[in-house]
């Protein structure tokens, strides 16, 4: 951290003026403690940003965890070695900023911390000037840096949270659009089929009544009913052709949500350009693989990945194998192999101890002709 490097200049001046070289060793120990705390808390902050508040560690335990305790220890050591309550308070406030607070709580805490740091600066300025000759030459710049540090950290974390919220909003908007599209399709399908079925029912009822006294007229009504069936089929195909499929990133996100709801720990890795992948081919594959994981997996974890690799889209599912698992033995993999094989793709499966992998690749640019050779399908997936 740049703050620790800048404050090291102060420690050097204090060490030289007061002839206490052990202060340098103590400061280094405190700086290492704060650095370790910062790395761990930032990693936790990023991890907690991907889960709901209900799934996070309770707030009280966040503040009593060992990284926070280590950071408080480092702040105390830095305060002793620099002979400055201001530096200790700045580090302490920074460590507490790295803990995920409730909405709006962090900024109120930062404002109070900044006020306290300013008060500390005015309180100890004259004391340091008398204790450490030449302190005023560096004190103001270092104090300004220390006072601004907690606010800078809080602003950075706020920016990170805003980016996460924007990503969630985009994902929610995309899913909502897909849901609205499905509802529109359901409504149009209901109207189309309802109309044709009602007409067919009336035509068949009329044919039944006329069958005894006018067979030719009854036959004509049956012919018209058949025509209505053909019209219903044509309308359904046209409606299906107009329906826009769900984008693959949303399909994978829905699959991950379903698996998490079943109690699995899910890791989802989707490339930024995954919306360009063929949803009509890979969408059913995702649904089939998700069903297989739920029915035949061990129920502990799953990994879902989609990305472009050397001119091919690569979709992979991995999960733990349950006792007596039938994964890979008639679990719909034959239909997946046929579906992707038609477009020049490939299906591979692999078993490694308690892990089962399914990897599907399809061309990223164009559909290969049927004569184009493909890698052999089956087990033995390269890792």
From TrEMBL:
InterPro entries: HATPase_C_sf (IPR036890), Sensor_HK_TwoCompSys (IPR050482), Sig_transdc_His_kin_sub3_dim/P (IPR011712). It comes from Microbacterium oleivorans. It is an enzyme of class 2 (transferase). This is histidine kinase. Residues 181-245 form the Signal transduction histidine kinase subgroup 3 dimerisation and phosphoacceptor domain. One of its GO terms (molecular function) is ATP binding. GO terms for cellular component: membrane. Its EC number is 2.7.13.3. The lineage of its organism: Bacteria, Bacillati, Actinomycetota, Actinomycetes, Micrococcales. The chain crosses the membrane at residues 27-45, 66-93, 105-123, 135-160. The keyword Ligase does not apply. It catalyses: ATP + protein L-histidine = ADP + protein N-phospho-L-histidine. Keywords: ATP-binding, Kinase, Membrane, Nucleotide-binding, Phosphoprotein, Transferase, Transmembrane, Transmembrane helix, Two-component regulatory system.
């Amino acid at each position: 951290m740049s703050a620790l490097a800048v404050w090291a200049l102060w420690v050097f001046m204090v060490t030289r003026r007061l002839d206490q070289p052990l202060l340098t060793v103590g400061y280094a120990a405190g700086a290492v403690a704060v650095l370790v705390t910062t790395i761990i808390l930032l990693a936790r902050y990023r991890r907690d940003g991907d889960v709901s508040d209900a799934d996070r560690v309770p707030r009280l335990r966040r503040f009593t965890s060992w990284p926070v305790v280590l950071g408080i220890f480092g702040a105390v050591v830095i305060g002793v070695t620099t002979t400055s309550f201001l530096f200790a308070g700045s580090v302490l406030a920074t460590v507490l900023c790295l803990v995920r607070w409730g909405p709006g709580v962090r900024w109120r805490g930062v404002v109070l911390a900044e006020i306290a740091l300013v008060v500390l600066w005015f309180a100890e300025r004259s004391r340091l000037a008398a204790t450490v000759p030449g302190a005023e030459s560096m004190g103001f710049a270092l104090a300004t840096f220390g006072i601004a540090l907690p606010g800078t950290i809080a602003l950075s974390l706020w920016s990170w949270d805003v980016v996460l919220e924007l990503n969630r909003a985009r994902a929610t908007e995309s899913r909502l659009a897909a849901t609205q599209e499905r509802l529109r399709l359901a409504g149009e399908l209901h109207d189309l089929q309802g109309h044709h079925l009602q007409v067919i029912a009336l035509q068949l009822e009329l044919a039944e009544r006329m069958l005894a006294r006018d067979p030719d007229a009854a036959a004509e009504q049956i012919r018209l009913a058949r025509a209505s069936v053909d019209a219903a089929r044509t309308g359904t195909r046209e409606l299906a052709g107009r329906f826009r499929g769900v984008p693959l990133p949303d399909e994978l996100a829905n699959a991950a949500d379903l698996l998490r709801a079943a109690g699995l720990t899910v890791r989802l890795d989707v490339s930024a350009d995954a919306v360009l992948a063929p949803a009509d081919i890979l969408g059913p594959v995702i649904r089939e693989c998700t069903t297989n994981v739920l029915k035949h997996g061990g129920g502990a974890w799953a990994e879902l990945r989609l990305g472009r690799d050397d001119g091919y889209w690569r979709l992979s599912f991995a999960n733990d194998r349950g006792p007596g698992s039938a994964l890979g033995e008639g679990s719909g993999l034959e239909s997946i192999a046929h579906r992707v094989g038609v477009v020049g793709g490939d299906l591979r499966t692999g078993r490694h101890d308690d892990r089962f992998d399914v990897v599907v690749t399809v061309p990223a640019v164009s559909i290969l002709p049927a004569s184009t050779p493909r890698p052999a399908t089956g087990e033995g997936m390269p890792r």
